[in-house]
Amino acid sequence: MRLLQDKIRREGTVLSPSILKVDTFLNHGIDPLLMREIGREFASRFAGGGITKVLTIESSGIAPAMMTALELGVPLIFARKRKSLTLRDDVFTEKIYSYTKEEENEVTVARKLLLPGDTVLIVDDFLANGEAASGMARIAGQAGARIAGFGIVIEKSFQSGRRRLEEEGFRIEALARIRSLENGAVTFLEEPSG
Ligand code: G4P
Ligand code: NA
Ligand code: NA
């Protein structure tokens, strides 16, 4: 997606060879017009997929997922990270380990929000090692829902997330695919021709 690549080139900061900071439009500040275009792009790529719900994880997945849900005309559900104080049986729970943050989060989704008849599109801001994506897939699996695929805003293609999801047979649509962050520069996998 050209608009997104240009935005990353202009406003993204390479923090290390593995971390891209995009806090002016995605992770802290949010660009609503860009989010709208992202929502339209995912909706168009997954059109006809019979999607009934969009699923993401708080907090940075919510903005692109919300615009996607709006375009598809379906509800959005976000998995919550806040730990529940008591064991409850009205939620699906999965543990998600973050290599970036070196911490494990327990995420939950209320059982009533995801049903066996649902077809879910999973949206997230970043795909790194695929821990969050796999955790969401397991939540959808617990619900008996079908997974239409993954809509990823920024894929770090040099990390293992895509390969891992593809091995599980999932469809992945990523709007910006980063080949490398070496030498402080962003290189995309598919440079736009036009
Ligand atoms: P994984 O799920 O694909 O394995 O990724 P990882 O554990 O590395 O990601 C943990 C958190 O770090 C996620 O946010 C993810 O979006 C974010 N992240 C991963 N790589 C990058 C990067 O290069 N740049 C930025 N800006 N973020 C990255 P989170 O903990 O869920 O936080 P939130 O922002 O959604 O609240
Ligand atoms: Na994030
Ligand atoms: Na995220």
Count of domain modules: 1
Order of helix and strand elements from N to C terminus: HEEHEHEEEEHEHEE
Q: Strand share of the residues?
A: 25-35%
Based on the coordinates given, report the CATH architecture.
3-Layer(aba) Sandwich
Number of strands: 10
* Structural class by helix and strand composition: alpha/beta
Oligomeric status of the shown chains? Answer: single chain
Q: Termini separation (Å)?
A: 11 Å
C-alpha Rg, in Å?
16 Å
Helix content: 25-40%
CATH class: Alpha Beta
Low-confidence stretches: none
- Overall, the morphology is globular
Mean pLDDT: 95
How many helices? The count is 5
Largest sheet: 6 strands, mixed
Bound molecules: guanosine-5',3'-tetraphosphate, sodium ion
Stated plainly, the CATH topology is called Rossmann fold
Subunit structure: Homodimer.
Catalytic activity: XMP + diphosphate = xanthine + 5-phospho-alpha-D-ribose 1-diphosphate
Enzyme class: transferase
Pathway: Purine metabolism; XMP biosynthesis via salvage pathway; XMP from xanthine: step 1/1
Key features?
binds guanosine-5',3'-tetraphosphate, 32% strand, 194 residues, binds sodium ion, 28% helix, Rossmann fold, 10 strands, PRTase_dom, alpha/beta
Offer a concise description of the structure.
The protein is 28% helix and 32% strand. It is of the alpha/beta class.
Tell me the layout of helices and strands.
Blueprint: H1 2-11, E1 13-16, E2 19-21, H2 32-45, E3 53-57, H3 62-72, E4 76-79, E5 91-98, E6 103-110, E7 119-127, H4 131-143, E8 146-156, H5 161-167, E9 172-180, E10 187-188
Parallel strand pairs: 3-4, 3-7, 7-8, 8-9
Antiparallel strand pairs: 1-2, 5-6, 9-10
One sodium ion binds next to β7.
